[in-house]
Design a protein that fits this description.
Low-confidence stretches: 286-296, 577-584
Mean pLDDT: 88
Strand order of the largest sheet: 5-4-1-6-11-8-12
CATH topology of the largest domain: Aminoglycoside 3'-phosphotransferase, Chain: A, domain 2
Oligomer: single chain
Number of domains: 3
Number of strands: 23
Number of helices: 18
Structural class: alpha+beta
Largest sheet: 7 strands, mixed
Distance between the termini: 43 Å
């Protein structure tokens, strides 16, 4: 296969929707994971064997010219053409007619692409269309209607199902369909060609990656979506404040006394989490004056989505828990109508990340402190919450137990293990008995996600986070979340030592201890299902690595509370297989 040796990169756009990032800077030179988008595009073309590249310029051409003058890709001959007046995508081709003498790649400089070009070349050679356009159904406005591999309509507002990704393979025949002068678009040229009976191929490429950089929010999202693809999974990135925050959010920072907000301010965009929230770190160079007088704090900005109802509780729960004397991050401001808040940034070191470096005695000391915090929450939380009418998520009931069971059944048993329905019905019955034990056990105000990833540190003091899902539930559920945590994977001795420490100090300790194995089974089944669901999100594939430790902890709990059918399938999960003799 001999791919085209020429490419035309469209880089003359004004970047209007990206302002102020592109006020005096070309969109094509905005960095993605530290590498200019134009550099990524050229690297892709070089990998395809392209030898000659033309780049059109208009807005803020200086940075592009200086970059190209450094000869970043010696194997390619790269030229630039300046357009004093914006000509549009079609006009740009007319202006570059001298370059177009053979099939060539045409692509926008403001998209992030990673794909195999072979399907485009095959569509080109087999059907001889005027152009072969890369399409996706996974993202974008989806205004393209493509039937049997041929594009019927680029602006099908009602019947569209695909998005044109801004990359195509075409040849010099296109020039005859472009207006002879003035502004013109490539899509208009395609439409003229279609009216003359020429075909435009639409090509879907499995395993490809595409992201559009049209707005500041899309620019930030492109970093999240491409992290895994480009080797930056789990990493944060520092971006200009204008890319990260809306103008109203910047005003809110000023209003809260956390300014000044300057154009050169950089915010660290943290990796995505499974809570419909975005986190941005601001390392402030100056003290925060006011309530926390003469103290310097790093600030964690949180933009939250109301699609998760529990997100709206975080600020009020912070005040409530602080009032109980429990260790939580300090709340700097909360603007609930804007879904925007700021809290004290305690860094990235969670209990989960600290544990591997700790000695056995240090682990015991930390877990004793955490058990004390758990006791305070369980003993004082519910009466005080009732007294002040604290809004909470709905408490544990049969519907919630059933939902957690379905998480495990649907995503582990059915999807991952392909268990037969006979086994699924038997396991559902076993899990229902565990839920009945929990429903009859002592209840308290519980964190609901009390695990090592939700414990940070202020010095040596553990600090709880992510308590927006706090509710009334079995005290044993919190204990199981903490002590059977797959992230920590505690050994049995420390697990039992902490359990006994809690039981000894709680007035209803023996009853809570009796429910502990059932709580561990309930919690770990929910966690296993959650790992599969979370791992399906871009940038969150790492959750799959916790399945083995969760299965081991579940197997340990089943030694104390036997569930024969569940135990069998947990064994298959640990072995990474299912019995082939069983019917599907």
């Amino acid at each position: 296969m001999s791919l085209p040796r020429k490419a035309f990169i469209l880089a003359a756009g004004l970047g209007t929707r990206l302002r102020p990032l592109t006020q005096d800077f070309p969109k094509a030179m905005l960095p993605l994971w530290g590498q200019p988008m134009l550099s990524r595009t050229l690297a892709l073309l070089a990998k395809w064997g392209v030898q000659q590249v033309l780049v059109n310029l208009h807005h803020a051409p200086g940075p592009i010219v200086r970059y190209l003058a450094s000869q970043p890709f010696p194997s390619m001959r790269i030229c630039a053409v300046f357009e004093p007046i914006i000509l549009g995508t079609g006009g740009a081709l007319r202006n570059a007619h001298w370059f177009i003498d053979q099939p060539f790649w045409l692509l926008n400089a403001d998209v992030i692409a990673d794909l195999d070009p072979a399907p485009l070349w095959q569509a080109w050679t087999h059907a001889a269309p005027l152009a072969a356009c890369w399409l996706t159904e996974a993202a974008g406005p989806r205004t393209v209607r493509c039937v049997n591999g041929h594009i019927r309509d680029f602006h099908a507002t009602n019947g569209g199902h695909a998005t044109f990704c801004g990359l195509q393979l075409l040849d010099q025949r296109i020039l005859s369909f472009i207006a002879p002068n003035g502004f013109d678009t490539l899509i208009a040229a395609y439409q003229r060609a279609q009216r003359k009976g020429l075909r435009i191929a639409g090509v879907f490429i499995p395993g490809s990656f595409w992201a559009d950089i049209g707005t500041p929010r899309q620019y930030v999202q492109a970093h999240r979506d491409s992290a895994q693809r480009f080797g930056h999974a789990g990493e944060s990135v520092i971006l200009p404040v204008a890319a990260v925050l809306t103008s109203r959010e910047q005003q809110r920072l000023q209003q809260a006394g956390l300014g000044p907000i300057t154009p050169d301010l950089g915010l660290e965009v943290l990796p995505p989490r499974g809570s419909a929230r975005e986190f941005f770190r601001w390392r402030r160079p100056r003290p925060v004056y006011g309530f926390y007088k003469n103290r310097t704090y790093d600030v964690l900005l949180i933009r939250w989505s109301p699609e998760r109802p529990d997100n709206r509780f975080y600020a009020r729960h912070s005040r409530f828990l602080a009032g109980l004397g429990l260790p939580v991050p300090r709340l700097f401001f909360d603007f609930p109508r804007d879904h925007f808040m700021a809290i004290e940034d305690l860094g990235d070191e969670t209990l989960e990340s600290r544990l591997p470096r700790l000695s056995a005695s240090a682990r015991r000391r930390i877990y004793r402190k955490i058990v004390d915090v758990t006791l305070q929450l369980h003993r004082r939380g519910l009466p005080t919450a009732r007294q002040c009418r604290l809004p909470l998520m709905p408490g544990f009931n049969q519907a919630l137990y059933d939902w957690e069971h379905r998480y495990f059944i649907d995503h582990i048993l059915r999807t991952r293990l392909r268990a037969p329905e006979t086994a699924i019905r038997a396991i559902a019955a076993e899990l229902k008995l565990a839920a009945q034990i929990l429903a009859a056990s002592p209840h308290a105000l519980i964190h609901r996600d009390w695990q090592s990833s939700n414990i940070l540190f202020r010095g040596s003091q553990p600090v709880m986070i992510d308590y927006q899902g706090m509710r009334r539930g079995p005290a044993a559920y919190d204990l199981a979340s903490l002590l059977c945590d797959p992230y920590a994977d505690l050994d049995a001795d420390l697990q039992q030592e902490c359990l006994h420490d809690y039981v000894r100090q709680h007035p209803q300790g023996p009853r809570i201890a009796q429910a502990f194995p059932a709580a561990a089974i309930q919690r770990l089944c929910q966690a296993l299902g959650a790992y599969v669901v979370l791992s399906s999100n871009t940038g969150m594939e790492h959750f799959l690595r916790y399945i083995p430790s969760a299965a081991r902890q579940l197997q340990r709990a089943l030694r104390s509370y036997s569930m024969p059918v569940l135990g069998t399938w947990v064994g298959h999960l640990l072995a990474g297989s299912h019995p082939p003799s069983l019917p599907r």
